[in-house]
Design a protein that fits this description.
The chain is an alpha/beta fold. It is built from two helices and seven strands. Strands 4-7-6-5 form a four-stranded mixed beta sheet, covered by helices on one side. It has a three-stranded mixed beta sheet with strand order 1-3-2.
Length: about 120
């Protein structure tokens, strides 16, 4: 019987690849994965352990950014981080709004430059 084993990657459409790379690489500190294949459109892959993030440059498919910072009730990608306070400071310095989780746990939400909701959970 077939069984799904794991999530392999998450793809996020972005309108401006350079702007998105400044956020994912400059603010979040992700590194492009040179082992990933070239595609017929612009994009970049980031390896995060066994799961990858694939930014797809598809300018016409990106919805406008949402009005609210919190994305807990929106489609979102959740990242495990080792220092939630340091991440909050990096977001603040880069001019990105964020909000703590309303659940009271050590987590925060923000939106990337294309309005995708991102959750960051503190793990040790």
């Amino acid at each position: 019987m077939m069984q799904i084993q794991a999530i392999h990657h998450v793809s996020l459409p972005v309108a401006d690849l350079d702007r998105s790379r400044r956020f994912y690489e400059g603010v979040l500190g992700l590194l492009p994965d040179p082992a990933r294949p070239a595609m017929t459109f612009d994009g970049v892959w980031y390896a995060l352990g066994a799961v990858s993030i694939h930014l797809l440059c598809l300018p016409d498919s990106c919805p406008p950014a949402q009005e609210t910072v919190s994305g807990g009730r929106d489609r979102h990608v959740a990242f495990a981080v080792d220092d939630i306070a340091a991440l909050g400071e990096r977001l603040r310095q880069a001019g990105f709004d964020f909000s703590p989780s309303s659940s009271g746990r050590a987590a925060l939400f923000c939106r990337d430059p294309d309005g995708h909701a991102l959750e960051f959970l503190a793990v040790r």
